[in-house]
Amino acid sequence: MKREKKQILGNFINDYLLLTGIIILTLYTIIAEPAFLNPGNLLNLIRTFVPLAFVSIGMTLIIIGGYIDLSVAGLFSMMSILASMLSNRFGPVSLLLILLAGLICGAVSALILIICGARNSSDALFITFGMQTAFNALALLLNGGLAVTLEQTPFTRFLGAGNFLGIPMVLILFIIAVVVLQFLMKKMPVGRAVHLVGGNPTAAELCGIKPSKVILLSFSVTGAMTALGAYLLLCRVGTAIPTVGKNYETNAILAVCIGGTSLSGGKGSVLNTVLGVMLVTIMSNALNILGIDANMQSVWKGVILILAIWIDSRRKV
């Protein structure tokens, strides 16, 4: 009976708590500040949501696979600078180039983890922090530490602020990415391999699954998603700053944890991460509208991250 009650509580947390939190936070913000429903604010909310969401869905694959990636913050900054330089020179082709660059950088991070013999998230923590430092340095070196202004074209305006059938283009691209990754993780053998490696790497190896291939796939996808998020943000704001990716790794991990993905690996969902990003984005927007100090916002994010990790640990009891 006691175990059944714990199971019921766990199912409630998994299925309803996140969605309930989003609804309660949204309603509270609307009551406290009706300007939240302003169409301009809602549109800005969507366009703020998408870059972080791209990073977070990639991070979901890595954490399900039993690892963690702190390098995305530095990679986001570097990709933003590189994207502006490529776009100014190559036009629309720069989108493909920046996706390729992000994928290669993610693969490089994975290869370094494999060479160093990293076997879990604890091992990956410091190695990917080192990669973050390297990417941050490269972001500063690419243009001498200066911001790069994007030469706006119809293509970049369409991606950054355009609509298709009344739907923001950035949101359409994100929905496509979510559908593809959700299908990959739930319906394809590669998705099951990622879950198995994260949950039981020994069993995965006995089944003929090489953890190194899973690491390479997860980090490569995350690199490409991070690059795409940086490119879309650049198209919206028009300027690339060498430190634009600051705190992206924290916010992405926060969104993934809130979405119910286990930090110990083997369990998680891309769709739930989307809900996690929604909660983080709405919370940040609400705190800004309510005039909460930026430092206090960081405190709240830290508290929520600790709470999410505590809930994750309780699920295993």
Characterize the main sheet.
2 strands, antiparallel
Within the largest sheet, what's the order of strands?
A: 1-4
Q: Averaged pLDDT, please?
A: 84
Helix content: over 70%
- Taken as a percent bin, the fraction of beta residues is under 5%
Unreliable stretches, pLDDT < 50, 5 or more residues? none
The helix/strand series, from N terminus to C terminus, equals HHHHHEHEEHHHHEHHH
Spatial shape: globular
Count the beta strands: 4
Question: What's the end-to-end separation, in Å?
Answer: 15 Å
Q: Helix tally? A: 13
* CA gyration radius, whole angstroms: 19 Å
Structural class computed from helices and strand pairing: mainly alpha
Describe the structure in your own words.
The chain is globular, with a radius of gyration of 19 Å. 78% of the residues lie in helices and 3% in strands. The chain has 317 residues and is an all-alpha fold. The protein has a two-stranded antiparallel sheet with strand order 1-4. Strands 2-3 form a two-stranded antiparallel sheet. The mean pLDDT is 84. α2 packs across α8 (189-199), α3 packs antiparallel against α4 (93-116) and α11 crosses α12. The two termini are 15 Å apart. The chain contains 13 helices and four strands. It has helices at residues 2-32, 39-64, 72-90, 93-116, 121-142, 154-161, 169-187, 189-199, 201-206, 211-237, 248-258, 270-289, 294-315, and strands at residues 148-149, 163-164, 167-168, 239-240.
